């Protein structure tokens, strides 16, 4: 049997979203439960996929099936396409599986032509309405199907209003609108070169094609990427007989939510316009009245509408967003869907629905979109001011939150300005670990280069600091402390606002407001914790971040990057001395200075985590990142070490690497300089012993993590140093404290040989940032430069550094888990790459059987919720 591509509303139901799209499935469901829905049919998402497979054509088989359903609809309505006596007019609207409001196209009043409209004008006794419908149709069809552009038609309307001395569209007469329709058609012919189509079948096929085509428009592509909607889904098309809200003052159209989508308050919320069609409400051409006023104007329709709202909420057990029309006092439902809402409203609605007995806690947990939670934790821009401020640039939304401050160009300036009470935004070509203090001091960070796992992005997320990265449109002139963007030159001290949740950049100052977290937030997270299997740890390098993460529910630290501590002002001279040492003795002397500092840092972190597990990773980055670049610092170092400036410069030059990310870093540092491993082991173990002594109620089991292992023998070499050093200290302290030694899996070879590696390891932690970088073979800092071209060409749909590539990198993760556990059944498995805070990746880690995910503090609540949703889905 050949595939069925078209369904009458009466043939579908709410469970057929995949095939009929959300709108189609809900129109079918509303039809089934007896609500007043103008009838129609849905052309499936599979027809959309077929359209693309056929080279953007609707093939004959599908066209024939559509025509069969046109005939059925004619039978149901008693109206006919192109019939002068009783014409069938329809709307043609998109409807994907997941709702994508405003992203795709709609056409109303299709089926009109000169003959039909003439008769309609006479028969209805309402010529104004008939001509209004026709001019709207020409306008929409020209814009959506033929891509002529709205503005030419709007200009014609404005000219007509001016000529007639009126200000409102509704003040134009039937004659005016008729004249406008004529002008529109002339405009169409001038732009397209042929007459405006008068055959309703030609109009219909053109409109359906245009909706399919709109699935691939740029705004839909961006929306899908931001919302994790696969390109392969396609959109359905709904062809629905028209109900008219613009036939007079006893008609109207509205959009309403069963609850307030901004606050969640349980009260009907919406807008209504008399004598209008739906687009007028959305387009903001006229100011609609609040829905409550509809009760006075249309008491009967309003009472009926209130009942429909109740029926729909009870039926869907969620807040509904509806479109409806009143035609001569009679209500018609055009759409319902689960309404989009702010994160705060989402939490309130979920809790209220539980309290009202409408849903259970599991469903409440499943209802919240995890990625939206972080907006509740960061400051936000004042919405009113934001609306009025133009966007001057767009880049990666690297770390959420809103920041507004004066532009500075260096970390030192950021620090100095902040110390004298100024709010600053740090604008850099890219950031390096040296900038960390400046990043801390700034309200937010804007970089010209770098992707989602670039240093700036990772560090900013860790701090919960707003960051917009990779704004290639900026022309940077760091030397003269200025940059150019959107045709304007910004100097040091100019105000700039950036939104790390959207990646948008604004000229000037937009005030921010602190986000408030209501009681519902905690309630939903409490429910989430009951259902999840995955533990959630955090990536934290300081006691402050660790404490922050604890507040958000972190159950341990999955990654403490020790290098971040080395950049503090009091440590950097010693680390530089260590790097520039000629002998082991010199190196040990420099490390001896660092050891107590590291130890006290670790004690602070252990204390903040109150006995929860803490994984500390050995020094990871290439050493050249630590060496001075500025002349004065080089001179200081030369003086400290009793060397000449040129000797120091020669050492620095010797550290140069062609591919530092694949160079002398990670465990390779410990293999060449075992004394680093000795020092770090001593600091970790001594800190744990001290904290254990202060807190006998906790059981301290420090976890030492060795990065960038690619060969089991590398791990066993470093591990031997760790064990010898640790055992001696523990013995000397007369303690029997346990500790774990594990490794990161971030080099494909480690994953491929995980059975060998696991014999040496108590745990694996997947470093999916490097694992992604090395598996794809492109740099985590530079991929942003070409990824856009890959999105445009549909080679990649997402940034693999933000959302785990489950097919490739995921296969390595899965393989390493299985190989590892085959030789070491107790192997503890986690992930500490940025993907640990990405909801779809968390679902993958749940399915793969990891024990925990670890992410930056501000993403801990997201990971907790995503882990719960993964477990709930799995159990279904
Ligand atoms: C990783 O590579 O995924 C990781 C967590 O380590 P880093 O980001 O510090 O390289
Ligand atoms: Mg790494």
From TrEMBL:
The enzyme's E.C. designation: 2.7.9.1
Residues covered by the PEP-utilising enzyme mobile domain: 422-503
Transmembrane regions listed in the UniProt entry: none
PROSITE patterns referenced in this protein's UniProt entry, alphabetically: PEP_ENZYMES_2, PEP_ENZYMES_PHOS_SITE
Co-factor requirement: Mg(2+)
Gene3D superfamilies: 1.20.80.30, ATP-grasp fold, A domain, ATP-grasp fold, B domain, Phosphoenolpyruvate-binding domains, Phosphohistidine domain, Pyruvate Phosphate Dikinase, domain 2
PEP-utilising enzyme C-terminal domain sequence ranges: 522-870
Signal peptide bounds: none
Family matches, as InterPro entries: ATP_grasp_subdomain_1, PEP-util_enz_mobile_dom, PEP_util_AS, PEP_util_C, PEP_util_CS, Phosphohistidine_dom_sf, PPDK_AMP/ATP-bd, Pyruvate_phosphate_dikinase
Pyruvate phosphate dikinase AMP/ATP-binding domain mapped to chain residues: 58-288, 303-352
Alphabetical keyword list: ATP-binding, Kinase, Magnesium, Metal-binding, Nucleotide-binding, Pyruvate, Transferase
Family: Belongs to the PEP-utilizing enzyme family.
Name used for this protein in its record: Pyruvate, phosphate dikinase
Organism listed in the record: Oscillibacter valericigenes
